[in-house]
Write a structure and sequence with these properties.
This protein is mostly helical. Strand 1, helix 3 and strand 2 form a beta-alpha-beta unit. It has a two-stranded parallel sheet.
Length: 96
């Protein structure tokens, strides 16, 4: 966890307020999946929905019975969401 916090501080600062974030998210040009824990008590799922809405074409996936750390709390659900998204992307963009 200390490593996670240090990484977040390096990328997002210590206030987690970035007025330029919406503009950067709007510039994402690759398929994106925003995964959020339904029971996240640190950042409400509505934030995740807002992130997804700010990224053109992004998909939002809410993980049931999951909090702020899906990679630790429900890794199987997280992996399934990522695998499903990746498979759908591969199917819609076959190799040339």
């Amino acid at each position: 966890m200390p490593g996670n916090r240090a990484s977040l501080a390096a990328y997002a600062g210590t206030t987690f307020a970035d007025p330029a974030l919406a503009g950067r998210l709007a510039g994402v040009t690759v398929p994106a999946l925003v995964v959020w824990g339904e029971d996240d008590r640190i950042v409400d799922p509505d934030y995740g929905r807002a992130y997804a809405a700010a990224i053109p074409g992004a998909q939002f996936r809410l993980l049931a019975a999951t909090g702020h750390l899906p990679q630790i709390e429900t890794p199987g659900r997280l992996l399934a969401a990522i695998t499903e998204f990746g498979g759908a992307q591969a199917a819609s963009h076959p190799a040339r």
